[in-house]
């Protein structure tokens, strides 16, 4: 274990304001004073700071007040790629739990502006026949209330997570049929990639669907290698938790290089919580947060830094179910999806 060489920095009030009300200023969050100092054990305290994106936010697309909801005849859809969350301890390209994550791109090809609010019912098809998979919504109440403007010629995104095992005797190509909110009809979205979750039992496969969001324009930084590229992440925490209870866990970021790695500007992290019973997903949520780097600005060479984290067990999770927390760093710069990922598995008890 390398000696602790905490690079403790008392950041200026401008940084505090910048982190609390950054590009995501539409949702400012009060930050408690204890978030600005390391704990007695050297850990960085958790700060409840949800964000919409780690990318600079350009002017959002707008439509006139009272614009009607989108109808299927105005839209086309497609899912162009899947990606796989991976544990840093896994070798090769084996999907984590057989889960694939993608985004349905819904394009307004008409000459009329429209809006999309909340989530959508999504069904999976192969060669015109529906594929039997379970369906869940991972969108929270706030996401369901969000109205996404879709001007003529622009797009909206719908995040989809396909969890295995998938053992149906069907072949690609697949198609998603997206039932729009507000009785807008059904949009057909071809699935371009041919992958599907692996078969590893008889449990039901699940499609978990988020809410409609506005796409993030391409950020020039996306082609730049992230300064956090060489860091390593590990997650530790309790073995059990109660339904609806709070899970306090720890993420350790290790710097194996001979140079200090700056944490500024504060990166984001995605926290995904998935409850399952006998391989069947019963609840799934995800949220992007800002990493609290107020009390520390860098990780010294050959050192590590521990961050306190908090998650909640889904209230409807039953005793004996498994809750998997997947934690991953998000930066505006290029950082492969398998980098800086940690996983914690917890058993639900009464």
UniProtKB/TrEMBL annotation:
InterPro entries: DUF4232
Keyword Signal (UniProt): yes
Limits of the DUF4232 domain: 90-211
Keywords attached to this entry: Signal
Signal peptide (UniProt feature, chain positions): 1-22
Protein name (record): DUF4232 domain-containing protein
Annotated source species: Paractinoplanes rishiriensis
């Amino acid at each position: 274990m390398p000696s602790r060489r905490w690079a403790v920095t008392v950041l200026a009030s401008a940084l505090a304001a910048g982190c609390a009300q950054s590009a995501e200023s539409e949702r400012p969050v009060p930050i408690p004073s204890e978030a600005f100092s390391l704990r007695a054990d050297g850990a960085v305290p958790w700060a409840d700071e949800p964000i919409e994106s780690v990318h600079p936010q350009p002017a959002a697309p707008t439509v006139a007040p009272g614009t009607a909801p989108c109808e299927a005849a105005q839209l086309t859809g497609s899912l162009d790629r899947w990606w796989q969350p991976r544990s840093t301890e896994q070798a090769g390209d084996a999907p984590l739990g057989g889960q694939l994550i993608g985004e349905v791109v819904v394009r307004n090809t008409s000459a009329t502006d429209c809006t999309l609010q909340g989530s959508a019912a999504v069904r999976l098809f192969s060669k015109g026949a529906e594929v039997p998979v379970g369906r869940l919504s991972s969108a929270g109440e706030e996401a369901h209330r969000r109205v996404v403007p879709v001007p003529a010629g622009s797009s909206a995104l719908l995040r989809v997570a396909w969890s295995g095992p998938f053992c149906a005797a069907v072949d690609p190509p697949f198609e998603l049929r997206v039932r729009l909110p507000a009785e807008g009809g059904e949009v057909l979205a071809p699935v371009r990639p041919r992958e599907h979750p692996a078969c590893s039992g008889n449990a039901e496969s699940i499609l978990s669907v988020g809410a409609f969001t506005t796409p993030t324009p391409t950020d020039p930084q996306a082609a730049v290698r992230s300064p956090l590229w060489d860091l390593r992440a590990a997650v530790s925490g309790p073995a059990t938790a109660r339904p609806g209870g709070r899970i306090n866990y720890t993420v350790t970021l290790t710097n194996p290089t001979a140079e200090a790695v700056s944490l500024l500007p504060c990166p984001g992290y995605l926290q995904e919580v998935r409850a399952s019973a006998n391989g069947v997903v019963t609840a799934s949520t995800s949220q992007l947060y800002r990493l609290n780097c107020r009390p520390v600005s860098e990780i010294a060479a050959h050192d590590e830094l521990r961050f306190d984290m908090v998650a909640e067990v889904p209230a409807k999770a039953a005793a004996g179910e498994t809750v998997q927390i997947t934690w991953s760093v998000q930066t505006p710069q290029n950082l492969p999806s398998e980098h800086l990922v940690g996983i914690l598995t917890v058993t639900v008890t009464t």
